[in-house]
Structure formats: structure tokens, C-alpha cells
Amino acid sequence: MNKAPSFGHSGFLMESPAALQQSASRRGPALVAGLLWLAAGLSAGYWVLQFMGRSSVTPVVTVATAPATPDPMAVARTLGALPVAAAGSAPVAAAPARYVLLGVVATGTDGGAALIAVDSQPPRPYRVGASLEGGLVLQAVTRRTVRLGPSLDAPSSMELSLPEKAATPS
């Protein structure tokens, strides 16, 4: 015996508790089936995207580049060398020395570099152990001096010092 649904005074459909339980028991399997179909669709979409997104492996060709060479003029400016035009305005000594020390970078006891001008040429950076023109080798670098000699292990034959800074008027 089917009974017509009754509406409450608020206008909502009112069903008996037995009818609610029967409709809930029908929704359970439908909900589980819907979730399973959703999972299957998402899984299929994931694998389709995986296969479509793959391309053949292409090896990348790299071009070997030469190592960067330092710019001697930039190193000279960093170590405090004056530009060539400004150096020409300085008074010329009667007997210029062959080697002029313009800057040092001392690192520990065995390392370092020096900025040395040879025969009035533009200054070049030299590391400890590097050969200079004239057969000398840079043996050691200290805070304000460098030692030069015929080889790295031989006694020093020459010591160069940084020129004293001229006092600037305040």
C-alpha cells in the first residue's frame, strides 16, 4: 500500500523513517560505483598524459668554452695601479728601476700574487712561482714586499717594496 507523500507546514517533503532507510540503502552502492568510475577515469587520464608527454631522448651537445682569462688592466686597477696617463704626469726618476711593484695580494705563507710592471710596460699580475721577464721568479709575497730570485728555491736576488702613499691634504 503506497501512501502519498505528506508535506509539513514548512513545505518540505516528509517521509517515514522506513522510507528514508530504504532510499539510503539504494544510494550506497551507487555512491561506491561513482567513486570507482571516478578513480578509473583519473587513472586513465594520468597514464594518457604520461605517454603523451614523453618524447625521445635527445642528447644535448655542449660546446667547450675556453677558460676565462683575467684582464690585466682590471686586476691592475683593483690592486691600485694608476692609469697610464696619470703615471706619465709623475716626475721621472733619473734611473728608473726595471721592476716596479704596484700591488700585492698576500694569501698565507706560500701564496699570493703581485702586480709588477717590467721595463715601463703596463703592469701584469704574477702568482708566486711565476716567471718574470729577465729570468727571475716571484718567490714570495708579503704585505708590502715581494722577493724575486733565479728560481723558486734559490736565494732571493731582489726585493721590491710598494711605493709609499703620498699624504693627501685634509
- Main beta sheet, described? 3 strands, antiparallel
Continuous helix count: 3
Q: How many domains, in number, for the residues?
A: 2
Structural class computed from helices and strand pairing: alpha+beta
Rg result: 43 Å
Give the quaternary arrangement of the chains: single chain
Uncertain runs: 85-96
3D shape: rod-shaped
User: For the residues shown, what is the average pLDDT?
Assistant: 77
Percent range for β-strand residues: 15-25%
What's the N-to-C terminus distance?
Answer: 114 Å
Reading the helices and strands in chain order gives: EEHHHEEEEEE
In helices, the fraction of residues equals 25-40%
Description of the molecule:
This protein is an alpha+beta fold and 170 residues long. It has 2 domains: 14-53; 72-88 and 95-161, no CATH class. Helices cover 29% and strands 23% of the residues. The chain is built from 3 helices and 8 strands, in the order ββαααββββββ. It has a 3-stranded antiparallel beta sheet, covered by helices on one side. Strands 6-7-8 form a 3-stranded antiparallel beta sheet, with no helix packed on it. The protein has a two-stranded antiparallel ribbon with strand order 1-2. Strand 7 and strand 8 form a beta hairpin. The radius of gyration is 43 Å and the shape is rod-shaped. It starts with 5 loop residues before the first strand and ends in a 9-residue tail after the last strand. Mean pLDDT is 77; it is low at 85-96.
